[in-house]
C-alpha cells in the first residue's frame, strides 16, 4: 500500500501478484484442498477402525450386558465413533495449524507495531479463551440432557417400528405417534436451550474481539499520527486482525464441538470400558470332547448376586442320555441350559463335560459342540436358505434341504412363492410361529452338535407336526447328550431321565413310569395336564348327551353314589342341593360356554394323551357295546368334556398308565 502511495516506491504489480498468490494458496483451492485430500484416507480409516472396534467389542460382551442394553442404545453408541474421529480430525488438521498461525501473527504484530500491540493481542486472546472455556464448562450439562433426549427419541422410534404388530393389534398407533412427537419436542427444546446459550456466549466473545480491535486500531492511529508507522502498516494490521479473529472463533467453536463430541461418545467409551463377565480364562484349552458326559456339581447361580435362581443342583448325566427339565415357570429350567452353554458362569459349583470344567476350556470350542433351539428363536432379515445355513456356514444346499425335511418344513418352504429364497423379515416376522420354530429346528439339525439343548422346541407347533418333529429329534439326539425343557409333558415321556425343578432345586428325578408311581410333584403335574379337575360328581350324561343311561351292572361299589347320579337316581336332598347349585353358581371359575358341573381344569391341554384314550376304551368295554361306543365316541369328539374324580378313578388311571 505504501508503494502505491509513492511514485518511486517500485512496481506495485509485484506486491499485488504476491498478495493474490498468497490468498490463492490459503484458499479452498490451495493448501486447504491439499490438506483435505491428504486427510481423506485418515478420516475414513479412523471412522472404520472405531466402528469395527466398537461392534467387535459389543458382540464379544456377555449375555448380562446384552440383556440390560437396548439395541437402539447400542446402535447410537456405535455412531459415537464418528464423534471421536471428528475430534481427532479437528485437533490434528485444524487446531494445530491455526495455533501456529496465531503465534506467528502475534510475533509479527509485536515486531512491527511494538510490544503494546502484542500485549493487546495477547490480552484479547486470553479473555476470549477464558470466556470460551467457561461456556464449555457450563454447557456440558445442557449438552448431556440433549444427548439423553436424542437417545430417548431413537429408542421410542425403534421400539414403535419393531413392535408394529403389537401396536396395531392393540390399536395404539395414535399413542405411539404422540409418544414419538413428545420425544421429538423434548429433544428440540433441549437443543434450543443449548443453542441459545451458545449464541449468547458468542455475542460476548464478539464484543471482546471488537474491543481488542478498537484498542489496537487507536494505538496504530496514534503511531501513524506520530510518524512511527505508515498507513500501509495500518492496513496490514486490520488484515491481520481479521486473520486473527477466525482462529479465535474456531478455537471457541472447537471447545464446544469437542465437548459435544465427547458427550456423544460417552456411552461408547463407557461400553468400551465394560469387560465381559464370561470370557476365556488365561491358558484356556480346547475342549477335548470324548462322549458327552455332563455333570452338574452343587451348582448355584444368581443373576443379580442376591437372589439365587439355581441353588445347589447336582446331576450326573451319562453320555448319550436325554434329560428333561420340568417344573413351574421361573423354576430355573432354562437357566440351567444357559449355564451349560456359558451364557453365564455359575456362581458356585462346577459344570463339567467329560471331566473338564467348562470355565477352563475355550469358550468357542465349547459352543462349537452345542446346538440349541431356543424358546423364542430369532431369525435374521434374510432368506430362509441363509437362516438355516447359519447353523453351519459351509453346508451345501442339499444338506440344508435334508435338515428342513427332518424338521418337517421342507414341503412348506417349497410351497412359498420364492421357496428357499423367501425373505423372512426382521426377526422372522413373515413366518408363522410354527414355521419360525421349525426353521430354527432345521438350523440346529444342520449344525450336527454333540450336545443338544431344546428349550420348549415344539411349543408353537400343532400336534401332527409335533409328532413328526419328535421323530426328527430322535434321529438328531440319537447318541447325543440331550437336555430338554418342556411344559407339555407328553413330549418328554420317553426321556431317559426327567428332573423336576422347583425353586431352583431338584425335588425329584427318574423316568416317567417311576415318577408316576412315586406320586410326587411330577405325578401332580401330569394329572393336572392329562386329567380334569372335578367340581361336581361324575355326570356321564354330559359325555353322551342324549344317549341311554348306564346299566346298573356297570357301577362299581366305590363309585355307587356317582353312578346313581348318572342313572338319575339322586336323592331328594341331592336334587335340592343340585337345584341350589344351579340357581347360585359356585365361586369356582368356569367358562361361559360350559354346562354347570363340567368345569375344566384351566391348565388342561387340548390334546388327549394315550393314557386317557385307554381309559376311554376301558370305559367302553366295561359297559354294553352301544353305551361303550357312545362314550368312546363322545370322548374322541369332545375330549374337553371328560372329567375324572381323582379319589375314585386314580387306581384305574394308574393301572391304565
Automatic annotation (TrEMBL):
Residue ranges crossing the lipid bilayer per the database entry: 91-113, 119-137, 196-222
Bilayer topology term? Multi-pass membrane protein
Where is it localised?
Membrane
Q: GO cellular-component terms in the record?
A: membrane
Keywords annotated in UniProt? ATP-binding, Membrane, Nucleotide-binding, Transmembrane, Transmembrane helix, Transport
Compositionally biased, Polar residues: which spans? Answer: 611-623
**A Pfam family name for this chain?**
ABC_tran
Positions of the ABC transporter domain: 294-528
UniProt feature, compositional bias: Basic and acidic residues: 541-550, 559-580, 587-596
Q: By its UniProt entry, which InterPro entries does this protein fall under?
A: AAA+_ATPase, ABC1_TM_dom, ABC1_TM_sf, ABC_transporter-like_ATP-bd, ABC_transporter-like_CS, P-loop_NTPase, Type_1_exporter
Q: Which GO terms describe its molecular function?
A: ABC-type transporter activity; ATP binding; ATP hydrolysis activity
Domain ABC transmembrane type-1: residue ranges: 33-260
Q: Which PROSITE patterns match?
A: ABC_TM1F, ABC_TRANSPORTER_1, ABC_TRANSPORTER_2
Enumerate the residue ranges of region (Disordered).
Answer: 541-641
Family from the record: Belongs to the ABC transporter superfamily. ABCB family. Heavy Metal importer (TC 3.A.1.210) subfamily.
What the entry lists under PANTHER family is as follows: ATP-BINDING CASSETTE SUB-FAMILY B, MITOCHONDRIAL POTASSIUM CHANNEL ATP-BINDING SUBUNIT
Q: What is this protein called?
A: Related to vacuolar membrane protein HMT1
**Organism (species):** Claviceps purpurea (strain 20.1)
Organismal lineage: Eukaryota, Fungi, Dikarya, Ascomycota, Pezizomycotina
